Amino acid sequence: MDARHHLIELSEAMAADAVAVSWTDLTTWMPLYPHCDALAQLPGDDEIAACCHDLGNACRAWLDGLMEHQPEDIESAAASLHGLVAGLQLMAHGEEPQGVTWCEPFAQVVAAGKRSTTTLGIPSFIDPELVCEFLTRLPSTCDDIEGHLMRHEQTANQAARDEARGLIHTIKGESGALCMAPLEELTHAMEEALLAKDSRCDALLAAVDWIRAYGAFAAGDRPGAPSGLDDLHDRLAGIEIKRPQDGGDLTPSDIIPIPEGATGPAAEPSSLELSRDTEELAEFLGEAKEHLEAADRHLLELEGGSGSDETLNALFRSFHTLKGLAGFFGANVIQRVAHESENLLDRARQHELEFSGAAIDVIFDAVDVIRQQIQTLTDYVEKGTQPGSSTESGSLIARIEAVMRGDSHTAIVRASAKELTQTIVSGGLATRSQITRALEKQGISSDDADAETVAKALVDAGVASAREVAGAMRSARQTKTPKLREAVKVDAERLDRLVDLSGELVIGASMITHDEEMLHALGDQSGRLTALDKLVRELQELATGLRLVPVHQTFQRMARMVRDLSRKLNKPLEFHMSGEDTELDKSVVDAIGDPLVHMVRNAVDHGLEATPEERERAGKPRAGHIKLRASHRGGSIYIEIQDDGRGLDRDTILAKARANNMLSDDSELADREVWNLIFEPGFSTAKNVSEVSGRGVGMDVVRRSIQSLRGQVDITSTPGHGTLFTIRLPLTMAVIDGMVVGTGTERYIIPTLSIVSSLRPKPEDISSVTGRGEMLRWHESLIPVFRLHELFDIPGAIVDPCQGLIVIAESEDQRYGLLVDELLGQQQVVIKSLGAALRKQPGLSGGAILPDGNVGLIVDIIELAHLATRSQRHIAAGAPA
Amino acid sequence: MSTTPSPGVAGKYLTFRLGAEDYGLQILKVQEILGLMPVTRVPRTPSFIRGVVNLRGKVIPVVSLRASFQLEARDDSDHTCIVVVQVERDGDPVVMGVIVDEVCEVVDIAGDAIEPAPSFGSQVDTSFILGMGKLGERVVALLDIDHVLRPHDIQTVAEAAD
Q: Does A853 touch chain B (CB under 8 A)?
């Protein structure tokens, strides 16, 4: 092959990887390294090769330099990369290299050079294990914060904001304890920014990115510390720091009087400025406790309906006093909570607000928070323990505000529609069909409704009173288990051992439980064996489930990417996700990320119309819709990416395929076959990568990576209405449904997924075609037949196809017949590697432990077919013609 | 080719028998000894690979040492054993089984009782022998099992057989 040919291949591969490059995630740049190296080593002695050599080396240096760069630089680097790839492709197609001026941006990026590489400077007295543990958790915490921020941005969801704030606050506390000053300062600024009325999500998300990068740097995964911290601070602080207020109707007194010395309301004053002496403080604490008890009593009366206006007044006074005292002592948290509660109670007193349900709840919680704070202070006074920080108050204050605004549902109830429906139905408030009807009246399908809409619909339809629904909401919330689940990180290898051993245990147990002698000897006690068997099976089920994790995190990455893309490309977008809780094997979840990025990117970039105006002309809403769904159907996991864009263009694809000699001119293809063309390698051999219908860029990579997960990808597309990509994945990488077949003295396993049918042919169905071997006539088509015993050299097998069985298997739209002796039964088997020494055996995809404890080998149909066509040994077999 | 035994060669060996010959395996390489169990043949592999067995949920390849030393095949007996060894491949441990006629004992062989592997001329490769250990009247060929079971060779042979 000449250099040019190599270059064409290389530039295509580079183009594919360049598409996946993200300026927020430097790891996406890694795949480019090998290409650069390959570029530098292009064979040949012509001008192109020489030019490529220099270019490859420059590229590599450039990438190396990039790793120490700032996000801003990387953004421009991304642009120059695309320039480079386009230039390469031009060159590959014989255009003048033109002194490779288009790679100049590199030089600049490289020269921009190594700026800030501050060291962490963590003092030695800090336990490195704590740091390590913190850093391990940091990325996933960042993901969570990101998710909450985006939810907050989209729906102004207060609860989401509070969750984000809580998490940020935790990072702040921890980084403070670990002496990571930059992180502590940044998170502090973030907290303040979150409280801003017009909270700018951009700055906050950028800050989250910074934290991620900082974490990677601290963990040693990144050579330089991220820069741009000052800038971030400016962006975060550039927002006027105001607490969120509902427009207008709050009096100026709502703004908390900031005690002297405090820098701002968000400076969570977990510690006191203990200027007062402790005796006075002790007195205050005692008094506060009394007030809290009184408040509890009054609240109970009010909730029980036996309270009067006077009770409400007394409650108000309790909080008022608490606020005053707390202010005097500088106990800011108590002061703020008391202040907000007082505001709420004041409005209730004036009958501007009904004091029931959510309002009572939130005041109860306020009492709890204050009590907790008092306890902390008491501990301080009595034992001298430093008060820890509290994360509760922020979310509580937000909830109080929400109640005052009247949108208590969103702020307080975090129960899902399903939970609410369940509570309502089981409480006899309404029937399921009533709920559905009420929703239909509002034009909402019950699938889309959240708890809020369900509640509103019920009230509007007059099915239940607002009070009853609110009550149901409350109990739904209470029945909801807390989201926080304790997790333990376990070495994956140990986990696999556990799975292995539990599998062995099942085999061992079943050998005992099926042992006639044993059963006989046990007599009446044999029931215990059955119990043991059941336990063992349950254990195994549990063990196999251990590797499953929800796709949530991967999906969230997409949400973030879509958001960023939408800004970048100036395309208004609505992104919907569902089924994030769907569980998949950890390795699959990890591996599916990159292809998904690719496909979602493609959907936004090419799937949707270029401009909102174009959409309007097509009679669609300005905002494009992208849906990402995960679901579990029939033992497989489906992930779907749907856009409502212009759909794939049949003619363009066909023209392109013909131009690339992928098709003979006269073939008539079904839609599905046409769409599948975009997965073909080399489909993107266009001069201009960003050509409109260029959905093929890198799609072959996508399909390959999905296939390597033993999955499939399918396309449906309607011109003008959008495209749907469906990815089907096995539930776990570890278990497959297999058909055990016998041939001679040996047994093999064929994945059930690939089996279409099995039959015993009649002599007239079998024919021998010269040069092509045996063929089976099946449903009007001819299928090549291979003999397993010949391919695998198995003695004692049935030779006459009409005596044995032909298993018809399908893979990649090709059908093959495989002659075996008999089917021995279907079996779920755990796939095992054959070990490093036998890793790649032709025709086999691995081994599995059969129920009798012996090893069975899993047949790889595609490989087997290749093997058979290569050897063509079956021609020699004297099959009946 | 002959090599001077390094001091590291001295130590404990598991001795076993193939036909009339005694061999020794460094005890640190030996993971366990199993009685013979059903071995699943793997098609299209060289003949010295007997197949794979299930070692408590893990599939490991099993090699017939007789076949790999090109000794004449013999039926399995009650004494036939699988010695599970851990060999190194590119720095990673790889677990394999080795079928031997009979396992004898664990012996301590001092450094001065070990002679370098004899040279039989260029025709015979003895690089897989660490040395010849003298145990009274008997002579034990001490095997460099990493070398004997160089998984790379197995792979190459497997590909060649294809």
A: yes
Q: Is B62 on the interface with A (CB under 8 A)?
A: no
Question: Hey, are the CB atoms on B44 and A842 less than 8 Å from each other?
Answer: yes
Q: Are residues A722 and A819 in the same domain?
A: no
Specify the DSSP class assigned to residue B80. -
Task: Return the DSSP state at B136.
Answer: T
Q: Check pLDDT > 50 for residue A873.
A: no
Nearest CA to CA, how far is A472 from chain B (Å)?
Answer: 51
Question: Among the listed ranges A430-439, A625-634, A820-829, B102-111, which one has the minimum average pLDDT value?
Answer: A430-439
Q: Does the interface predicted TM-score (ipTM) exceed 0.85?
A: no
Give a yes or no: residue A264 inside a domain.
no
The answer to whether residue A120 is domain-embedded is no
Question: Which of A33-42, A540-549, B75-84 shows the lowest mean pLDDT across its residues?
Answer: A33-42
Q: Are residues A472 and A533 in the same domain?
A: no
> Is there a contact between A59 and A46 (Cβ–Cβ < 8 Å)?
no
Q: What is the pLDDT of residue A302?
A: 79
Q: In chain B, which residue's Cα lies nearest the Cα of A792?
A: B43
Nearest to A834 among B61, B89, B162 (CB): B61
Closest-CA distance, B134 to chain A, in angstroms, reads 33
Range of the domain at A502: 492-546
pLDDT at residue A348, as a whole number: 81
Is the same domain home to A565 and A445?
no
Residue from B31, B49, B54 to probe the interface with A (highest A Cβ count within 10 Å): B54
CA nearest to B37 within chain A? A854
Between A852 and A478, residue with greater pLDDT: A852
Q: Is residue A752 part of a domain?
A: yes
C-alpha to C-alpha distance for A131 and A126, rounded to whole angstroms: 8
Pick among B34, B36, B56 to test the A interface (most A CBs inside 10 A): B56
CA–CA separation, A574 vs A569, rounded Å? Answer: 14
Domain check: are A704 and A832 in the same one? no
Cβ atoms of A706 and A757 within 8 Å: the answer is: no
CB contact under 8 A, A849 and B44: no
Return phi, psi of residue A267, to 5°.
-70, 85
Cβ-based contacts under 8 A for chains A and B: 87
For A419-431, what is the mean pLDDT? 74
Instruction: Calculate how close chain B gets to A132, using CA atoms only, in Å.
Output: 26
A587/A548 Cα distance (integer angstroms):
9
Same domain, A499 and A590: no
Q: Does A842 touch chain B (CB under 8 A)?
A: yes
B41 in A contact zone (CB under 8 Å) = yes
CA distances (Å), B106 to each of A330, B13, B15, B66, in order?
77, 5, 6, 21
Q: A230 with A276, same domain?
A: no
Closest CA of chain A from B91, distance in Å: 12
> Which CATH number fits the domain that encloses residue A711?
3.30.565.10
* CATH for the stretch B7-161: 2.40.50.180
CB burial class (10 A; 0-12, 13-18, 19+) of residue A388?
exposed
A640: which strand partners? Answer: A629, A726
A308 interfaces chain B, CB cutoff of 8 Å: no
Q: How far apart are CA A592 and CA A639, in angstroms?
A: 10
| Interface membership of A746 toward B (CB under 8 Å) | yes
* pLDDT tens per residue, range A505-560: 887 887 787 777 888 888 888 788 888 888 888 888 888 788 888 888 888 888 88
Backbone torsions φ then ψ of A753, nearest 5 degrees: -55, -35
Q: Measure CA of the first residue to CA of the last residue in chain A; give whole Å.
A: 43
Total structural domains within chain A: 7
What digits encode the pLDDT tens for the residues A787-816? 899 888 898 888 888 899 999 988 766 788
**Do A826 and A841 share a structural domain?**
yes
A651 and A560 inside one domain: yes
- Using pLDDT thresholds of 50, 70 and 90, give the confidence band for residue A588: confident
Asked whether the predicted pLDDT for residue A267 surpasses 50, the reply is no
